[in-house]
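Sequence only, no structure available. Ideas?
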Amino acid sequence: MRFIRIGLHVLSGLWMLHRAKKVGDSETRRDGIMSWSARMLAILGIECRLVTDLPAKPSLIVANHLSWLDILVLGSFIPVRFLSKDEIRGWPIIGRLAHGAQTLFIKRGDRSSAEKAITEIEGVLRSEEFVVVFPEGTSTHGPMPSRFKGRLIEAARRAGVAVCPVAVYYSGPGKEFAPYAGDDELGLHMKRLVTAPPIRAYVSVGDLISPDQMTIPIAREAQSRVEDMLRHLMIK
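Reply:
I predicted one. Tokens follow.
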């Protein structure tokens, strides 16, 4: 039954994005994506809690990456655009959702694609929108992130926009079902999620980091703050 609800909700998301594109209403699209993400999490049985205030102004959000669920969790709280790996563009249905949500794409390991992504992120930041990047470059099983890379943070430096560290943590009886990393397959992961015990997702937002320094120190500072927030969340 829950799979049917998920399928119907995916179809509703495609229709919502189609209508928003047709009328050219970006505010309706942003609000629709946030509402749709929150509803999908509810269908999956995942409770979300924001434990700190959201950033008051658009910034480059850098977060640890545990699962595709991170996109729904962050997208339910903040009107953001995501940077995702280019392969997702070709995925059935998921690719259409990502495209409709104006996701930015990058080919991993491709220098020219990375430079294009930086330019695109800079443009979005200059238009006063939030962008989320996962500077680990891939999802991990956590709980602590692997090394944050600084390359994409260059977009914030060019746009003169602050970097906002954000920590995502999964708790509750079903927390071990949340990570999606390594050789996991999306369908199998989804199947495990719908039968998992309750999961709680926590989001913690750190202080903004000035873009007026080199990208590597910014990445190191952002990772340090994310790790501090994760340590605090782990005792919840």
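The mean pLDDT is 91.
Hope that gets you unstuck.
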